[in-house]
Design goal:
about 60 residues, alpha+beta, two-stranded antiparallel ribbon, 3 helices, 2 strands, about 45% helix
Length: about 60
């Protein structure tokens, strides 16, 4: 089993070039996969998020 690195909303926003507010909105709307690690504490797997968002620029 492969361990996947979990990243924060801040890290994800930097990778995607989106604001942290947009990451939170996508999380709330279940537009991107996330893992809840505590009350209002979320982490993301970069590859899974990129896959969920689909090809960029189309």
């Amino acid at each position: 089993m492969t361990r996947k690195k979990l990243i924060t909303a801040q890290e994800l926003s930097t990778i995607l070039g989106l604001s942290v507010d947009t990451i939170w909105r996508y999380t709330r709307d279940r537009r991107i996969p996330h893992i809840e690690i505590g009350p209002r504490q979320y982490r993301y797997v970069e590859d899974e998020v990129l896959k969920a968002l689909g090809p960029r620029g189309s």
